[in-house]
Amino acid sequence: MALDETKGTIGKTTVARIYSNFVTSVGVIAGSCFKETSGSKLAAMGVPGCQQMLDDMLNDGGGVLFIDEAYQLSSGNSPGGRGVLDFLLAEVENLTGKIIFLLAGYSKQMESFFAHNPGFPSRFPTEMKFDDFDDDELLRILQYQIQKKYNGRMKWEDDLYLRVVTRRLGRGRGKVGFGNARAVENLLANISKRQANRLRKERRAGAKTNDLLFTKEDLVGPEPSSALSSCKAWKKMQCLIGLSSVKESVKALVDSIQSNYLRELAEEPVIEYSLNRVFLGSPGTGKTTVAKLYGQILVDIGLLSNGEVVVVKNPSDFIGTVLGASEAQTKGILAATEGKVLVIDEAYGLYGGSSGSSGSVGKFSDPYKTAVVDTIVAEVQGAPGEDRCVLLLGYKDQMEEMLQNANPGLSRRFPLSSAFTFEDFDSSELAKILDLKLEQQGFSATDQAKRVALEMLERARNRPNFGNAGEVDILLNEAKARHQRRLSSKETDKLSTLEALDLDENFDRAERTDTNVAKLFEGTVGCEKIVATLEGFQESVRSMKSFGMDPKENIPFNFLFRGPPGTGKTSTARKMGKVFYDMGFLATAEVLDRSASDLVGQYVGQTGPKVRELLDKALGRVLFIDEAYRLAEGHFAQEAVDELVDSVTKDKYKGRMVIILAGYDDDINRLISVNPGMSSRFPEVIDFYSLSAEDCFDLLLQLLTKQKRMLESKKPFNRLVLNCLEHPTTDFKDDVVSNFRALSAQPSWASARDVETLAKSIFSVAMKSRQGTCVTVTEAMVEAELDKMFDEREIRGKQAETTRKRVRLQDLFMAPPPAQTPHKISSQYQASTKEDEASCTPPESPTAEVDNGKRKSVRDAGVSDEVWEQLESDKKAQEERDAKYRAMLETKRKAVGAAREAILKELIEEEERLKKEEEQRKKAAKMGRCPVGYDWIKQAQGGFRCAGGSHYISDEELASS
């Protein structure tokens, strides 16, 4: 027979003896021997010891063998247990009618016992279950134990209070670990302990006491409202700075406990709630401190049985190193915190990811962390009356992700709807925390120092994971270190008073912002509009602050920088970081310089997280995205733009960082059209223009003057002579300006950047021609380097065009042909025989027929002599124009003064004509009229004809295409 029971029910041994007497009295067995043992004892005895016990019983005539906690034989903790089980399996059958075997154990654990061998269930067919005691039975057991413990002399104030306390006990019925009669014993011990504490206080107060009376407070505990008034943890929580919403939540919970107390006394059903909670908030907001106080409050008002400690654990305490270890460690921690408060700090560290959740592309589940969460879900039911409180602490976003994507049962046991939310401290609360910490550390601070500290904290708020009270500690630690250095250097004599300089060495930057912009852009040519814009921002900030308003709402944080290369977009972004930092909007003046590729993913689902990760990294700084026009190309880039548009309006990023998208005019305009929300998210546009030829001359002089100061500062006799630039002749300056004007017409001209390159090359040539310690820059050097740069840019331009032509020809043959508009083909061409077609070989790669970027042309069949002669004449005219252009370039190199100026003007006009003509050729090629891919020749009478002669496109068609 198997006796299945729950903990603490009616004595198993008693029932076993009664059953033994019964079977003996009715003659089921002859002997009356009764042996009691346990599974662990049998395992320790082994098979020989078990055999000896059975032999002794048989010598006594047989009887009943009672094995308590029989499941210990199959638990695996006792090496000999399984051998004994196998031995008993046969003996139970062999000793039928001589020895009766009675097994006892808890229902769940006995399952493993019967699973050891399929023969056990058939050998123990009879099962006797012991149910949990109901409330009336628990009440009778409590009354019986009181009478037994105090020999019938103890009285109690009212039967109502006994019913209330046994109903409380009965709410744990059906849960793992419910102790039944043993739980009543523990309850009586707690009642006696409360009575002893009460009597001690009364005797100290000199009041009359009755040692043989259980009062209402002894039985049901103190009234929650009165217990709260004397609770040190509650008083300490009320003294904490800020946390108004958390205090209100705790007060609401205590009020509900008070309501339940009154409902219990009225014998009405109680309002059920769970003690488990989630604490959400940024670092440094007091989550751990409040968790400890909250746990102690629960203990003080009697909701938990063990008030010894509040146990604080981290995720690493739960996670094992091998499979199965995480479950064992978690169960051990939960078992050790029965009746206590378990605080799991940074609980989001238990989230191991979920490959099936949305937004988890590319993530893999961590089986060790997942095992911890699954075990917590299995062991912590979160039901009302559970004698354990588990608190999960962590940052809001990470905790929400874990509760939404981990085991679904976790969110039911720890609902976000009842979470305690810890808001960031506002400025006034940070000021109180600063004063408190200064007092605790034995320091004081001047009013100016406190203002500077609060300004620094406001800037730090823009950083990711602002530390709140922890940020104050960091600030004071750095301030004390600076203060000590100033004390050591005799810069101050105030031993315990912090001054503004101790907090921030540049604390007065806000008062110096009037001159900052001008100084920042000092020496920068053509930046007047940018300086005016930034100074306007500063004026707006000062005005709004004077009215007590938040200037963030009226200052733009998202910008578009439009302009050609080398116009100062990147350097302006760095200077804007300094300006916005000085205005108090950024945590640092640092600029995060990134390209479009840093935002774009390589597979579906990667782009969104990549954009958010970059934005998180740029919080409190300037995010400068160069070549942003690439965000308008491709599906993944479109996804990046959509994510960026969505993110910049969120509270997490809005007003906490400066975002700058930079690129060329047309490309930026095209980017704005990709998403309708871009225009409203990036309303502020700063245009950058190429330097004029005159500005290029001024910049060249500035750069070389800077080199002059650097060179002459190294040694007293060093000299750099710049007379030709500092006091130029009219002809020389006009010549240099003309050269800059010609360079600026080149497609690859990079404005100020190229002027810097030119200045370096001039200085390098001058250094090679130095005489002693004197370095002289001459007119010839300047003009030679200008000519060299012009020639190089011209060659690069031609090479780039040749490369584009080759790519275009290759695309024509390698890619599927574009849709062609129907056109007539000569009858002679149509009459080609099948034999001719069969003998034709596929055309070789077009690059084999390219000479200087042009495909060799052959007269098409059906082209009239008149057309072909005109085409040949146009080809010759084009060659003559090319020869004339080359001659002009050669003449320019040799010409000086006014002659050179005239040639430069002609060259600029000729380059404009060539550029326009080349654009028309590109349009003609894109139209796909010529399937062979011949070049298009400009016709004297207007329009273009392919070099084969068959196809013609008018100027009107090109203009309308």
Automatic annotation (TrEMBL):
Listed Gene3D superfamilies: 1.10.8.60, P-loop containing nucleotide triphosphate hydrolases
Taxonomic source organism: Colletotrichum higginsianum (strain IMI 349063) (Crucifer anthracnose fungus)
Domain AAA+ ATPase: 6-134, 274-420, 555-692
Keywords: ATP-binding, Coiled coil, Nucleotide-binding
PANTHER family documented for this protein: AAA-TYPE ATPASE FAMILY PROTEIN / ANKYRIN REPEAT FAMILY PROTEIN, AAA-TYPE ATPASE FAMILY PROTEIN _ ANKYRIN REPEAT FAMILY PROTEIN
Coiled coil: 900-928
Span of the signal peptide: none
Protein name: ATPase
Chain spans, region Disordered: 815-861
Similarity annotation: Belongs to the CbxX/CfxQ family.
Domain of life: Eukaryota
Record Pfam families: AAA, AAA_lid_6
Composition bias, Polar residues: 823-832
GO-annotated molecular function: ATP binding; ATP hydrolysis activity
Aminoacyl-tRNA synthetase as UniProt keyword: no
Stored PROSITE patterns: PROKAR_LIPOPROTEIN
